Amino acid sequence: xxxxxxxxxxxxxxxxxxxxxxxxxxxxxxxxxxxxxxxxxxxxxxxxxxxxxxxxxxxxxxxxxxxxxxxxxxxxxxxxxxxxxxxxxxxxxxxxxxxxxxxxxxxxxxxxxxxxxxxxxxxxxxxxxxxxxxxxxxxxxxxxxxxxxxxxxxxxxxxxxxxxxxxxxxxxxxxxxxxxxxxxxxxxxxxxxxxxxxxxxxxxxxxxxxxxxxxxxxxxxxxxxxxxxxxxxxxxxxxxxxxxxxxxxxxx
Length: 252
Ligand SMILES: [Zn+2]
Description:
This protein is mostly helical. It has helices at residues 2-30, 58-62, 77-96, 102-122, 127-143, 149-169, 176-189, 191-214, 227-249. Helix 4 runs antiparallel to helix 5 and helix 4 (102-122) crosses helix 9 (227-249). The N and C termini lie far apart (42 Å). Zinc ion (ZN) binds at residues 42, 44-45, 47, 67, 69-70, 72. The site of zinc ion has 8 residues, from loops. One of its GO terms (molecular function) is aspartic-type endopeptidase activity.
């Protein structure tokens, strides 16, 4: 029991560190900076950050959201991104367990989290993240999965074509980044769950978008980043897909 708890804490700490890393990756890729150089620094005063400034989430809380050196406000998107990554990795690990399936599951999770962050920051889903991850997912699906490889390949095609059709029908409401992201999601999920993830994402988007419109937080025609809803729909379909399907068909 204690050992299991310690393992959980250990995994969560690793997830937090990964969260911090992928957060920086997302932001640096958006700014077209190198991932390795320069070392972490304040984007405002350029002061190099010490180990104590880099503890995920906690540094932000201790420093009250300000740079230690120049007092400039740090965007709450930093700790948000770190927590989101850590929580997603942890939840996926808890559901999947130490199985081979954890490999494609975590690749998908990291891809989704980085896409959410770049989508919120700049309304962009970056090819430089999506395409390599799509490649790695394809390779992993040759060896890992309860279905044969062609099943996951078909999923990728379904995701790509579905989003392409939506992009054409919505005349640019959906970008090329979303299309490629859905190809990757399709490879991870296979065709059925990919369709379900899109239905769930659209439903979540419609509900939240409706609330934001009604409360006046956003105006009509103002674009809302779809990335967060893709994230929600895909994680839900991946973890609870068959449960959701059984629940839905029980009404027939
Ligand atoms: Zn600073």
